[in-house]
Amino acid sequence: MIIMDQRQTLKINERIIDLLRPIMQNNEIARMLYDDSGIVRAEGRLATIDEHDVKPYIILSTGQKIFIDSIIAVNGIFKNDYTEC
After folding, report:
1. Is the predicted pLDDT of residue 82 greater than 90, yes or no?
2. How far is Cα 8 from Cα 24, in angstroms, rounded to an integer?
3. Sheet holding 77-78: strands in order across?
4. β partners of residue 57
5. Alpha-carbon distance 17 to 68, whole Å?
């Protein structure tokens, strides 16, 4: 018998930003994977969410800027279309 790994993915019509907003509102820590010419881990409290920029981004409390479209997973929940891991 072959056992395959399973992972939690976004619900239908859910987006990464829908995960980020309550994390920021509740001052919780976001643990993320994002693509920056390779998979990178980032962790921290969200200081800023700018959804209205030409290229929407977040800024962590450390000052690190991450473009929202590069985020693959937040707190263990993956984008539906990400198949690399």
Report:
1. no
2. 21
3. 8-9, 77-78, 71-74, 29-35, 39-50, 57-60, 65-67
4. 50, 67
5. 7
Which pLDDT value is given to residue 50?
A: 97
d(CA 54, CA 85): 29
Residue 77 identity: I
Amino acid present at 22: P
pTM: 0.86
| Beta strands 77-78; 8-9: pairing state | parallel
Q: 81 by DSSP, 3-state: which?
A: coil
The CB density around residue 64, as the number of other CB atoms within 10 Å, is: 13
| CA 3/CA 1 separation, integer angstroms | 6
